[in-house]
């Protein structure tokens, strides 16, 4: 039986669909039926009318449901879980797609386009109105009549719940919040791509004028400046870049054009007098000062000296212990900083809550972990605060002020020894998305710690007659840090910590705020000082007392139990031991590292320094728990860097050109996103001048690069390890976690520990022969050098003979090794193995528990502080280098105050003479004259207007007509190219399908000649475009953006054509971005040309023969479809694009012409072949990872055949546990004092003892970590080349948000 049959009245049958089409082009029966079809009512209009009616009905039902739920409080019973039954919301189901035609061909499977499936980020549903107090049975309210509204007090179990939003998110509050800053959240606030330049977002740090400031006159409004002209000139002078750029000049010109400027206001303007008056208004006023109080909050800088006790090895009484005074401490009052922040900022959360995600009404809800103000730590502090007795006679709402500290030293200049050791503060009541933007100015500079002056060693020598030992120098530096913190945590702060601070908030309500310390972000050397433990001592961890010989047991259940049972706590016995040790040192003259002191403190590696944070121990407060994980230094610059160095060592030992092949492959890796993946350097193996973001990129692209460089057995071990390393990094850096993803992180930590132990064991034996040979060669070289030295000594008297003998020896040495070298002090070890005793490796086991308690890692990342270092470097550049720190404090105050005031009353008027933006079409230049033979790609040097993309758009393509193509000329010019086969027919079929059913997606549809004749393409022209921007909703319910062009960022992903496909996505390479003006000359259709945007693509095919996925720990592999397949080339509706994707060639397989022979317009001008296969890089950013792993809160849920398992980490068997323990106990080098451990200990102790903390090896390239210098050639790879693109973007954020990381700011996390 023939499978393809014409109409029953005709009866003709054919073997292929193409044969049927050719027959129907001339079949009279079919053409007659086709004319009848054109006279039928428009089925699309009928379907759309039915859909609209159903939608109205669903909206009415939803409104009725919400009206019934509003104002209710869920009160679960004792035996019912709190999160078991949240309010449900209706989910709109798409209607069944209509058939495309009623002719003989069967209806094709259709589904809505991705544009309709994806949802825009939505703010949390607002709270219902608070019910009357009398209706709340289990909410107790104080009956006292006070001016502020009474605050309800209730236990956490009686939670207030919000209605689920469209993503299934809802919140649970312990009390009725009196202020919810998320009520005014807009789409701009939920975007990582930024907004148009003139847009002011509601979630920006909204400052209000001080309540005692009268704004009725301009003079008072701009106090302490006389008028607007002076204020804006001072603002331009003291903010922004110290090196005035073109952008700074544009700001000045815009001000001169505005209505705020009047030249009469500057009649007697004097910059020196205005600056002096400004500094006087913002400086700190002592509480008992006689000066008139300033209208500004009293949060200025205080300068003082700080004293430390210096042990001199002699016996003393308590009163005669020698002290040394260090000048130059600059700090600010924490209480005054808190007052300033909470009295002026409106985007602060006063009431914590729990955030949940439930995809449907019947499923189990999952806890969401993201912000600090919705973390368990914040909730516990809030509940504990509500339970403690109120202040006498006070009925004010009690609020936790969440403090998040950061400190580290930095160099201020590229040359010289200028350095600064700052302490920064952020408030956890603010959103991390705002805190992560340095340009928002939300970071508070709390203190600039002085360093021990050069005269300290001289003073010690004069007192004792002995030089200062390295151990004593380290002890004094530690004493200095904690002496500074004792100044900061003064009596005023301690009173506020216990009794609170009454602050009138911007909403006019007074509240009592209690400061609480939550996190302290620092690198390992800084944590050692803060936790008062010995640097890489017997117990090197700042959070637990696990001995260093147990570090390799990462991921085992024994290790997890040890972290809980051996957690460090600031207990009374610990503080007693420290006081006893200090008595031995200061009063009895014992040494800092004497045997008596070590017997007291050596068991847990403590040091004889009283911790300043122990003053909070009675609260209770455990300062060890505040030390946050440091992903940047511990993983990217720690574990991964160590693995990469060992991999390079293995490639070098393997011989051949393996290392050079690795360098070549990294250079060939395509870039991705706005600097998400940048072009790699020529010599990656050299590891020169690489910052954290470079190591992150190296990890994300490592699998295709290292694949195939070694034999199959070693290759499997390395690729599996690299997959686990990349997955652990993606999970640890997620900006929104659920309980499922945290369990994945725990399981990944277990896998990573086991694979690193296997990695160390597998490659140790293979490196031994090479290391031994290299060791023997070095010994021969040493013997030759010693022989040369002896020859010189014995033949000095015979100059001629001696010179001849020396020359022969030198010649012999050059022939074997080159120039003579001195013998090393110690010969290298012949065994080179991977070091598992890294403290940074041990820290990986704490991430999951810390995320559960404090939120995601980006909230307390050290990247925030590294970026803030830019600000102090700008201040330093403005000083005259004479008492630079004091000048920097004044510059910091000017910058902060001016930024706050500018945002308070920023002018929104159009500057004088400024022209309003015009329509891009009218502003476009006339079409250019191009050579006859044109390509579908617009050259990078060409310019095309593309303004800022609205966030509610799915995609954005310019409407210019600067680059037209004449269709028939283009087809004739490329005749014979496989990509051009049936080009015109395919374009017509694609456009007809979209005209008839614009909201439906599906496979290609073939129309008859008569149907195609009804489609007219105006002027027979295609209009090429340079860039298409695609907005997408990420897993974290924030808007991201990709820029796609057909030159170097041309790969896109769409949903698979069939829902039961082997792979959920389909991939294509964009050959050209076009728009056409079409007219559908059919009955009832409009005769006005309709512009349609189309993508000309070359499709990829999923490689089913390659076993990939999470279970096999391999990347998915695809290849181009062969050119003889009629579906290889086609057209794609931009509405179907999900986002850009990163496809990396499989370098171990050579290029081929198998898929497309010869030169073609589907490739670049100089390309003649294709890579045989490509890897789909699922680790290019976190959003991409979550699309394949599943579980993204903001994602449209796609059926995944190989989704990441959501269960808990699998329990290891007894045999596995025993093997893990045996592996750590019976290693080749079982003693804890192995050569590697000893070398690492000596190196780190030398850093702490012989160099200042600012010389730590992690910070020596701090300027390189922030450097963002792109050459013109790099910009061709990174930027989209569009004009007027003023978006702020996270060029380091790998969510398309990163990093990179990283944040949504032009000064954001891109540079790390």
TrEMBL record:
<feature type="compositionally biased region" description="Low complexity">
    <location>
        <begin position="819"/>
        <end position="829"/>
    </location>
</feature>
<feature type="compositionally biased region" description="Acidic residues">
    <location>
        <begin position="1271"/>
        <end position="1312"/>
    </location>
</feature>
<feature type="region of interest" description="Disordered">
    <location>
        <begin position="909"/>
        <end position="931"/>
    </location>
</feature>
<dbReference type="Pfam" id="PF18759">
    <property type="entry name" value="Plavaka"/>
</dbReference>
<feature type="compositionally biased region" description="Polar residues">
    <location>
        <begin position="78"/>
        <end position="87"/>
    </location>
</feature>
<feature type="region of interest" description="Disordered">
    <location>
        <begin position="791"/>
        <end position="831"/>
    </location>
</feature>
<feature type="compositionally biased region" description="Acidic residues">
    <location>
        <begin position="1253"/>
        <end position="1263"/>
    </location>
</feature>
<protein>
    <recommendedName>
        <fullName>C2H2-type domain-containing protein</fullName>
    </recommendedName>
</protein>
<feature type="region of interest" description="Disordered">
    <location>
        <begin position="52"/>
        <end position="105"/>
    </location>
</feature>
<feature type="compositionally biased region" description="Polar residues">
    <location>
        <begin position="909"/>
        <end position="919"/>
    </location>
</feature>
<feature type="region of interest" description="Disordered">
    <location>
        <begin position="1204"/>
        <end position="1312"/>
    </location>
</feature>
<dbReference type="InterPro" id="IPR041078">
    <property type="entry name" value="Plavaka"/>
</dbReference>
């Amino acid at each position: 039986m023939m499978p393809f049959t014409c109409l029953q009245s005709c009866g003709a049958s054919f073997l292929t669909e193409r044969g049927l089409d050719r027959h129907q082009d001339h079949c009279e029966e079919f053409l007659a039926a086709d004319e009848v079809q054109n006279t039928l009512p428009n089925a699309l209009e009928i379907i759309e009318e039915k859909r609209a009616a159903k939608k109205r009905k669903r909206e009415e039902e939803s409104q009725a449901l919400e009206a019934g739920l509003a104002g209710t409080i869920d009160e679960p019973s004792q035996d019912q879980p709190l999160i078991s039954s949240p309010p449900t919301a209706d989910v709109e189901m798409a209607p069944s797609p209509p058939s495309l035609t009623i002719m003989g061909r069967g209806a094709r499977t259709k589904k809505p386009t991705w544009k309709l499936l994806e949802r825009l980020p939505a703010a949390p549903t607002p709270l219902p109105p608070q019910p009357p107090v009398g209706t709340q049975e289990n909410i107790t309210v104080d009956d006292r009549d006070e001016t502020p509204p009474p605050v309800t007090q209730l236990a956490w179990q009686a939670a207030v719940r919000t209605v689920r939003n469209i993503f299934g998110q809802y919140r649970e509050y312990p009390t009725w919040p009196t202020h919810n800053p998320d009520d005014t959240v807009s789409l701009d606030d939920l975007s990582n791509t930024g907004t148009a330049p003139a847009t002011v977002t509601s979630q920006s740090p909204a400052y209000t004028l001080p309540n005692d400031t009268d704004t009725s006159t301009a003079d008072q409004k701009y106090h302490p400046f006389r008028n607007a002209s002076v204020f804006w000139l001072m603002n331009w002078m003291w903010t922004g870049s110290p090196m005035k750029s073109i952008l700074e000049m544009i700001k000045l010109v815009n001000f001169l054009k505005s209505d705020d400027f009047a030249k009469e206001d500057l009649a007697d303007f004097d910059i020196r007098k205005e600056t002096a008056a400004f500094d006087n208004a913002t400086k700190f006023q002592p509480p008992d000062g006689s000066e008139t109080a300033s209208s500004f909050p009293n949060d200025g800088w205080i300068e003082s000296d700080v004293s430390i006790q210096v042990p001199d090895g002699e016996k003393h009484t308590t009163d005669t212990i020698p002290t040394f005074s260090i000048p130059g401490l600059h700090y600010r009052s924490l209480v005054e900083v808190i007052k300033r922040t909470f009295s002026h900022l409106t985007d602060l959360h006063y009431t914590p809550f729990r955030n949940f995600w439930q995809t449907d009404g019947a499923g189990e809800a999952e806890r969401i972990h993201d912000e600090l103000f919705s973390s368990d730590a914040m909730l516990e502090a809030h509940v504990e605060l509500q339970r403690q007795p109120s202040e006498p006679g006070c009925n004010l709402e009690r609020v936790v002020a969440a403090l998040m500290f950061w400190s580290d030293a930095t160099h201020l200049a590229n040359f010289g020894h200028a350095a600064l050791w700052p302490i920064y503060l952020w408030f956890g009541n603010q959103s991390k998305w705002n805190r992560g933007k340095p340009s928002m100015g939300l970071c508070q500079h709390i203190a600039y710690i002085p360093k021990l002056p050069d005269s300290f060693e001289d003073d010690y020598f004069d007192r004792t007659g002995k030089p200062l030992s390295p151990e004593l120098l380290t002890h004094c530096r530690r004493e200095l840090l904690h002496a500074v913190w004792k100044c900061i945590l003064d009596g005023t702060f301690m009173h506020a910590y216990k009794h609170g601070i009454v602050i009138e908030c911007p909403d006019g309500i007074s509240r009592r705020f209690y400061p609480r310390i939550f996190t302290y972000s620092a690198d390992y050397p800084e944590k050692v000082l803060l936790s008062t433990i010995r640097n890489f001592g017997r117990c090197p961890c700042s959070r637990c007392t696990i001995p260093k010989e147990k570090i390799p047991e990462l991921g085992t259940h024994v290790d997890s139990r040890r972290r809980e049972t051996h957690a460090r706590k600031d207990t009374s016995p610990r503080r007693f031991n420290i006081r006893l040790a200090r008595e031995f040192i200061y009063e009895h003259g014992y040494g800092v590292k004497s045997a008596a002191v070590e017997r007291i403190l050596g068991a847990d590696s403590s040091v004889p320094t009283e911790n300043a944070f122990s003053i909070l121990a009675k609260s209770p407060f455990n300062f060890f728990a505040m030390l946050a994980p440091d992903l940047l230094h511990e993983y990217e610059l720690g574990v991964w860097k160590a693995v990469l160095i060992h991999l390079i060592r293995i490639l070098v030992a393997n011989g051949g050109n393996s290392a050079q092949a690795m360098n070549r492959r990294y250079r060939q890796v395509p870039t991705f996103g706005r600097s998400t993946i940048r072009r790699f350097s020529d010599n990656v193996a050299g590891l020169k001048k690489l910052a954290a973001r470079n190591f992150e990129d190296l990890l994300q692209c490592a699998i295709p690069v290292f694949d195939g460089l070694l034999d199959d057995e070693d290759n499997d071990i390395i690729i599996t390890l690299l997959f686990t390393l990349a997955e652990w990094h993606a999970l640890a850096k997620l900006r929104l976690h659920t309980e499922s993803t945290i369990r994945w992180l725990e399981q990944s930590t277990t896998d990573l520990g086991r694979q690193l132990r296997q990695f160390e064991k597998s490659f140790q034996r293979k490196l031994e022969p090479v290391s031994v040979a290299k060791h023997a060669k070095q010994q021969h070289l040493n013997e030759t050098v010693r022989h040369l030295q002896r020859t010189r000594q014995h033949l000095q008297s015979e100059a001629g003979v001696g010179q001849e003998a020396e020359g022969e020896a030198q010649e012999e040495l050059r022939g074997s090794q080159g120039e003579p070298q001195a013998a090393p002090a110690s010969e290298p070890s012949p065994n080179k193995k991977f070091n598992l005793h890294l403290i940074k490796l041990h820290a990986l086991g704490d991430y999951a528990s810390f995320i559960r308690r404090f939120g995601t890692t980006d909230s307390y990342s050290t990247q925030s502080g590294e970026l803030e270092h830019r600000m102090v470097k700008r201040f330093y550049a403005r000083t005259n280098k004479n008492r630079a720190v004091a000048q920097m404090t004044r510059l910091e105050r000017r910058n902060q105050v001016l930024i706050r005031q500018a945002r308070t009353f920023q002018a929104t008027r159009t500057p004088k003479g400024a022209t309003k933006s015009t329509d891009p079409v009218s502003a476009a230049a006339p079409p250019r004259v191009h050579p006859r033979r044109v390509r579908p790609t617009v050259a990078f040097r060409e310019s095309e207007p593309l303004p800022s993309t609205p966030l509610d758009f799915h995609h954005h393509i310019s409407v210019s007509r600067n680059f037209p193509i004449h269709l028939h000329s283009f087809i004739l010019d490329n005749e014979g190219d496989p990509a051009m086969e049936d080009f015109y027919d395919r374009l017509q079929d694609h456009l007809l399908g979209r005209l008839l059913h614009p909201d439906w997606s599906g496979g290609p549809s073939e129309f008859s000649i008569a149907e195609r004749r009804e489609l007219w393409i105006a002027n027979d022209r295609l209009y090429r475009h340079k860039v298409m921007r695609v907005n997408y909703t990420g897993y974290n319910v924030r808007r991201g953006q990709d820029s796609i062009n057909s030159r170097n960022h041309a790969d896109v992903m769409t949903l698979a054509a069939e829902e039961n496909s082997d792979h959920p996505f389909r991939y294509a390479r964009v050959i050209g971005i076009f728009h056409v003006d079409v007219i559908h000359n059919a009955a009832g259709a409009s005769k006005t040309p309709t512009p349609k945007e189309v993508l000309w693509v070359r499709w990829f095919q999923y490689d089913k023969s390659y076993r990939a996925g999470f279970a096999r720990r391999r990347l998915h592999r695809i290849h181009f479809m062969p050119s003889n397949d009629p579906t290889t080339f086609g057209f794609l509706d931009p509405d179907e694009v999900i986002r850009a994707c990163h496809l990396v060639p499989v370098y171990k397989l050579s290029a081929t012409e198998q898929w497309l022979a010869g030169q073609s317009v589907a490739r670049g001008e100089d390309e003649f072949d294709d890579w045989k296969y490509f890897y789909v890089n699922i680790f290019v950013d976190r959003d991409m990872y979550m699309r394949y792993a599943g579980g993204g809160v903001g994602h449209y849920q796609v059926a995944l055949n190989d989704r990441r398992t959501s269960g808990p980490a699998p329990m290891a068997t007894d045999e596995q546990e025993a093997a893990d323990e045996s592996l750590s106990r019976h290693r080749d080098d079982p003693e804890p004092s192995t050569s590697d451990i000893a070398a690492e200990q000596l190196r780190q102790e030398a850093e702490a003892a012989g160099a200042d903390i600012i010389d730590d090896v992690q910070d020596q390239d701090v300027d390189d970590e922030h450097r963002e210098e792109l050459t013109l050639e790099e910009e061709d790879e990174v930027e989209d080349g569009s004009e007027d693109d003023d978006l702020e973007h996270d060029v380091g954020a790998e969510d398309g948000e990163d990093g990179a990381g990283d944040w949504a700011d032009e000064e954001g996390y891109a540079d790390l």
